[in-house]
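Q: Okay, next protein. This is Hemicentin-1 from Trichonephila inaurata madagascariensis. I've checked the sequence twice, so it should be correct. Can you predict the 3D structure?
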Amino acid sequence: MLFLSRYLFVSANSPDAPKIQRFQFPEKLEVNEKVGATCMLRSGKPPYTFRWLKDGKGLENKNGIIIENGERLSHLLIDPITYASAASPSWNEEPFDVETTVGEKVSVKCSASGYPNPKIEWIKKDDVAFFLRRDSSTSRNSTLLLFNPVRIVDGGEYVCIASNAYTDTKIEMPIMKFNILYLFASTVIDTVAGAVNDSPKIQHTQVPSMVEIGEKINIPCMIRKGSPPFHFEWFKNSAAIKSSENFQIVDTSDSSRLTINPVTEKSSGNYTCTVRTKFGSDRMTIYISVKAPPAWSYEPKDIETIEGESTSIPCSADGSPAPRINWKRLDLAKTFTDSRILSNNGTLQFIPVNKSHEGSYVCEAYNDVGSPLKKIVSLTVHEAPVIQPFSLPERIQIGKSLSLSCAVMSGTPPLNFKWYRNQKLLQTENIKSSNKKVSFLTIDPIVENSGGNYSCIVSNSKGQDHFSAVLVVTAPPIWISEPEDKELVENEKLNLKCLASGAPNPRIIWKRLENSQNRESSTSLKLNSENGSLILDPVLKIHEGNYMCTADNGAGHPLSKTVTIVIRGRKKFVYKLF
């Protein structure tokens, strides 16, 4: 395993201390691979001094260590050909050829080194239990295989294996079976060493998942293993990246580095490095999220609405992470959390809005990056006018005066008042307003045609309301045709007129007075005419007497008139015969 310390010291000749973009090495490396790391600054002011250390000791440009310093970064490359921090086993002492006979004592030493120290074992081919029943002596980096004495069954092939979990190194020894143990010249077999024509493998690198606008970020793409030449390409969200104002790409023979400078709010996305050779390809993808303070995507504005309607005040902001939206009412210092009022997208909703919602509100957008956004808006709730119901006297007599008032209980000025009688607009000097919310209609004097359906209509820019009441005008009866005394001859037709006017129309009643001194004993007569006339046809002697006509409509005092009807008998003619 490669043990390279990730501790490093960066000193800055400035009060603004630098911040380093974290990096790491692969957890496991193999011999002959290359490994690198880039120490990049996220922020800070120059000049900078970079130092690389391994296990607390400074590293220099020698013995396979390559350090390249830039203005804001330092790149470390470890060349495995000359500098292997983790190495597969290699032979320290190879066994000698041995020839012996049965009964002799023979020992064969197998010694190897590596990092970490290898484990050395002997096995006998076709006999997996061999190492369990043969004596052996093990010390650091070596194992002694002991035959004491050599037996006929010891003939066979033996293998020494040196392993340190990264590579295995083997020595195979064929042994003659005719009482003689032969140890031929051994061959070291490295079973894990890189092949000549390997496909490329990228060393995966960690970079900050969250960066801030204005910072500079470097994304290294380094080859762990593979056969050159290498062809690198960079992509953002599957779209090819070319060097431009914000992107710089620097390629070397076995690495590529993408620099984003400066980071903008549009820099968020998936960044992919691909490498291709004629032997294969590999890719690495890193997601970069840009910390961006809130910025209005829709800045709330003052709004005017009508009471009773559904009203919304949008408020939204962009940023990374996505900003949270809060609404507060300034005069109540209350944060709205009711889902019926605050929608998921930050819109303040009133369903429906009423006058009590009128006031000042503040929308806050914050994501813990930079300063939060705040905007105060005013909600003005206009009211369509609502008239307070008014009433009129059931009846009013002609000659009196009347004042009608039309008052508005609610409604946003300016208000426009109009009066109508029987759906006809009234235009008179008798219509006056004492203030902006009351209108008076004065009728002075009341005349017969003053009665009717009176309506008050109030309107403003948000709507209108109306209220109506019926005015009934009354007038006491007056004679149109006053009845008079009549003298008729029996069997003639009597037509005695009794006509009166008034409001409402008077009711005509005829009564016969049995005793002129006592009208209480009068008897009502049936009329035979719609105009109130008393008709007797034929009139008889018995009809003679006093009659009273009464005109009454409930307004004022009724009219009454008593008349006398005299019936004379027919004249008798005497004819003399001479």
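A: Here is a summary of the prediction. The radius of gyration is 60 Å. The longest strand covers residues 280-298.
Q: Noted. On to the next one.
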